[in-house]
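User: Design a sequence. Structure:
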């Protein structure tokens, strides 16, 4: 009777291994699709949309960073 039970775990193991392999291939396909989407973000002209308009070197001050000269002259009596 024990010989009959021995064949079953190996079949279950094969089934588990097949499922693992299927999951691996599905995951690899998802990873490849995600990688293709990431590389497809740049436009046809080769400019990254996030970096468009940025020039190398020091950037100009934003409006909120600028000190207004009128405010300084009013505070000094």
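Assistant: Done.
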């Amino acid at each position: 009777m024990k010989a009959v039970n021995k064949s079953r775990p190996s079949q279950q193991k094969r089934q588990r291994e097949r499922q693992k392999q299927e999951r691996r291939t599905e995951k690899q396909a998802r990873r490849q699709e995600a990688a293709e989407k990431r590389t497809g973000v740049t436009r046809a002209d080769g400019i990254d949309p996030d970096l468009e308009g940025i020039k190398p070197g020091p950037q100009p001050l934003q409006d909120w960073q600028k000190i207004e000269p009128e405010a300084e002259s009013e505070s000094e009596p």
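The two ends are 105 Å apart (CA to CA). The helical segments are 2-39, 69-75.
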